[in-house]
Amino acid sequence: MSSIGGGRCERWYVVQTLVRQEPRAHAQLAAQGFDAFLPRVQRTIRHARTLRTILSAAFPGYLFVRLDLDRDRWRSVNGTLGVSRMIMGGEAPIPAPEGVVETIFDYVDSRGVARFDRDLVEGQSVRIKSGPLANALGELVRLDANGRVRVLLDIMGGRIETMVARVDLEAA
User: Fold this and answer.
1) Res 7: pLDDT
2) Domain 11-106 annotated CATH 3.30.70.940
């Protein structure tokens, strides 16, 4: 990140998108030459008894754009297709806290998917993110090298052991 003429340096800013328009806003910002970042996660959705894995925004309704407010024409971000507005503080956008977006980058794999599940450890409380047991809470009992996880779920007043994919878990 550099600074021009002693002014502000480049920082990441939060852009609020229109409902389910994150990919469109991201593409439009990139087409205008902005450095935009849309973290995505894999989710399993159920529709009419079928399960399908999709990529969706890690933070629905939001993405990030890197700007130098002294150099870049940041006001044009608000007029971009798919964008609702930039998160503002008075007359200027508010930068994301230092290091937050860079930390998210560290969780993105080679396919561009954010893997927030990578820091899971045995004994930890977890929540199932997707699939037929979505939102169930439990304890991570065992991790294996194939990406399968044994979880002890708290369901119906009892504890039931099940196997789930690691990507379907998050820390609770």
Assistant:
1) 47
2) yes
